[in-house]
Automatic annotation (TrEMBL):
Swiss-Prot/TrEMBL keywords: Redox-active center, Signal
Name of the protein this chain belongs to: Thioredoxin
Pfam families the UniProt entry points to: Thioredoxin_7
GO biological process: cell redox homeostasis; response to stress
Species lineage: Bacteria, Pseudomonadati, Bacteroidota, Bacteroidia, Bacteroidales
Length: 446
């Protein structure tokens, strides 16, 4: 045999041996990078496969209109590390919970919001349920608990009872508390809410100081600090505000926004009750909360002046029913905001007018509301807001007895609603409401 031919034969054989190995390596690499491999078949078929392989079943209950569901499917389930963990330990299934054939299954596992992810034993019993969108870490943590590689809320609670002063155990419990509570029902849920709130307040009291200023504890405060105990929440807002530099170093601007949003909510609540105590919260904006409100400041208008103009105008509207005064003051505020006025500012100016005065609005008042909402429409891009604004304008034209313009606005709103892709339930609700308004117009025109 020719030596060159012999060398060629060896090279060909080597290539034939290496090619399958290369293809196998590429296949393994691709499988490791594909994220979760979801079972193709029905729930009962997936459960049967889970029994066969003696693995828990992981079910993603979603709805086609649910944006967070789509985000999880695209950004979390596709991650290689998530796929690597789930594919070796679970049979995974995605279920459109609103399809007729899946409604009973969703009901059986108490799916009431989307997304809901459930871990189910091979015998069909629930192991754990998580409501709401989960990031990579939260999803993996939930899976590890089911797989016996993590610590569950109940296990942490048992550890807490043995050592009630262990703040690390308390922190882990409180971080898991929102998902744990979401899976509880009835009296059991009420019992745990009381326990967790008591635990939360004790934990905050024990750590209140530099040790509390960190990302994990902020998440606990944000998720568990409710509005039921206003005095306690005020203490937390003041604590964050008094240590704002340290909080901003730990978590950034959200610390300042927490102070701003809480203070604004209290001021607006008092305004709508007709209480002049709202002024105490407005004054805080230029005093103790001045630094926090820098995140909401405009180049054209200091935060304090902006808030004072707004809340004074709103108070005059709710307390005195002074529509003319409100319109005058809001015009002043919007003018001073200059080119920094957002669509939502115009929309809220009109919405407050409708909410506070309603049927008492005059023709001129409705014309002003229309003008504001039309300004909002010019720059608003969110479909839901655009539909809402068009319906608001239509309502004003209906009150003005300009039924042709009202119909035009309602029809435009309906046309905009067609853009609400993958939001079937909200879309249906909006469209039904608009159809009802159009039907009412027909009766008014007769």
């Amino acid at each position: 045999m020719n030596p060159n031919q012999n060398n060629k034969t060896h090279k060909d054989m080597k290539r034939l041996i290496l090619l399958p190995l290369l293809l196998f390596a590429l296949l393994c690499k691709a499988q490791g990078e594909q994220g979760i491999t979801f079972f193709k078949g029905s729930f009962n078929e997936a459960l049967a496969e889970a029994k066969k392989q003696n693995k828990p079943l992981f079910v993603d209950f979603y709805a086609t209109w649910c944006v967070p569901c789509k985000r999880m499917a695209k950004e979390v389930f596709t991650l290689p590390e998530v796929g690597e963990y789930f594919n070796s330990r679970f049979i995974s299934l995605q279920i459109d919970a609103e399809k007729p054939e899946n409604k009973e299954i969703a009901k059986q596992y108490k799916v009431e919001a989307y997304p809901t992810v459930a871990f189910i034993a091979p015998d069909g019993k629930t192991i754990g349920v998580n409501v709401g969108a989960l990031g990579k870490e939260d999803l993996l943590e939930a899976a590890k608990i089911v797989a016996g590689e993590g610590v569950s809320f109940e296990q942490l609670y048992e550890a807490y009872k043995k050592n009630p002063n262990d703040l690390e155990v308390q922190q882990q419990m409180l971080m898991k508390a929102p998902n744990f509570l979401a899976a509880q029902e009835g009296m059991e849920a009420d019992k745990w809410v009381v326990r967790i709130q008591k635990l939360y307040k004790g934990y905050i009291a024990a750590k209140k100081g530099p040790k509390l200023i960190n990302k994990d504890d902020y998440a606990i405060i944000y998720n568990l600090e409710g509005n039921d105990d206003k005095a306690h929440k005020q203490e937390m807002v003041d604590f964050i505000n008094q240590n704002l530099d340290a909080w901003k170093a730990a978590i950034g601007a959200p610390a300042a926004y927490y102070v701003v949003m809480s203070n604004d909510a209290w001021a607006e609540e008092l305004v709508k009750e007709g209480s002049d105590k709202y002024k105490q919260y407005v004054e805080k904006i230029k005093n103790e909360y001045a630094k926090a409100y820098e995140v909401a400041a405009l180049p054209t208008l200091p935060a304090y002046e902006r808030a004072k103009l707004y809340y004074d105008a709103l108070y005059n509207l709710y307390k005195n029913k002074d529509v003319k005064g409100y319109i005058r003051d809001m015009k002043t505020l919007l003018q001073k905001m200059g080119d920094k006025v957002a669509p939502a500012d115009y929309g809220k100016a009109a919405q407050d007018l409708y909410n506070a005065a309603g049927k008492k609005l005059t023709a001129d008042d409705h014309k002003q509301a229309i003008e504001w909402v039309e300004q909002a429409l010019k720059a608003e891009e969110a479909v839901m807001e655009r539909v809402n604004y068009l319906v608001m304008i239509g309502d004003s034209y209906r009150e003005l007895k300009n039924y042709a313009k009202a119909r035009e606005c309602y029809n435009q709103g309906y046309a905009e609603s067609l853009r609400m892709q993958n939001m079937e339930m909200p879309q249906a609700m909006v469209q039904n409401a608009i159809k009802h308004k159009l039907a009412t117009l027909e009766l008014l025109e007769k």
